[in-house]
Design goal:
Number of strands: 0
Oligomer: single chain
Distance between the termini: 156 Å
Number of helices: 3
Length: 116
């Protein structure tokens, strides 16, 4: 079968239609790409304008390490042993003082003169 060569008006119509379709499809893609470029420029400007540096991060990490070290030095028992010993000692001293006051009260009651 012999094909006829495309005549010039028919060829131009197909070329123009294809170009219009490609242009119609590429415009939204170009607009999307431009918005992404603007967004990335804004993000880069924000990042470059940030004053937080690597040294600041190291300083924060060092301070956090110091805080965790101080926390780990706290006694693990609640209440700590030394506190329990001190409270027991105070309790024994109070008990001893109470016994002494009772003894003094008994002695004073013997000395009291009954009312006449």
């Amino acid at each position: 079968m012999i094909q006829k060569p495309l005549d010039k008006p028919n060829w131009f119509f197909w070329f123009a239609t294809t170009a219009e379709i490609l242009l119609a499809l590429s415009l939204p893609a170009v607009a999307w790409a431009l918005t992404k470029v603007v967004d990335h420029e804004a993000r880069i400007a924000t990042i470059e304008g940030n004053r937080f540096t690597a040294q600041d991060g190291k300083d924060i990490q060092r301070e956090l390490s110091n805080i965790w070290r101080e926390i780990s030095a706290f006694p693990r028992e609640i209440p700590p042993k030394w506190f329990e010993e001190r409270v027991d000692r105070i309790d024994r001293n109070q008990h001893t003082l109470l016994e002494a006051v009772r003894d003094i009260d008994k002695r004073l009651s013997v000395l009291e003169v009954p009312p006449s």
